[in-house]
Amino acid sequence: xxxxxxxxxxxxxxxxxxxxxxxxxxxxxxxxxxxxxxxxxxxxxxxxxxxxxxxxxxxxxxxxxxxxxxxxxxxxxxxxxxxxxxxxxxx
Length: 91
Hints:
By secondary structure, this protein is mainly beta. The protein has strands spanning 48-53, 59-64, 69-73, 78-83. A four-stranded antiparallel beta sheet has the order 1-2-3-4, with no helix packed on it.
């Protein structure tokens, strides 16, 4: 039934989806006009499409049109890890 009797290693989990407890929260916009660029991190080949900060740790994550994401440690900008191999852009 599954092409030779071997299991694929994937299983399907069914049941109700858990509600995201943060889905209803709204945050005021950040005062970006008061920000200034003090450091550049080099690593993506194309433009950065999204940036996210960890709420409690000095970690920044970037997603790029080059189909990669990268996790950086602040303030030095050391690369912690990255993901490659996406078939399309990463948001």
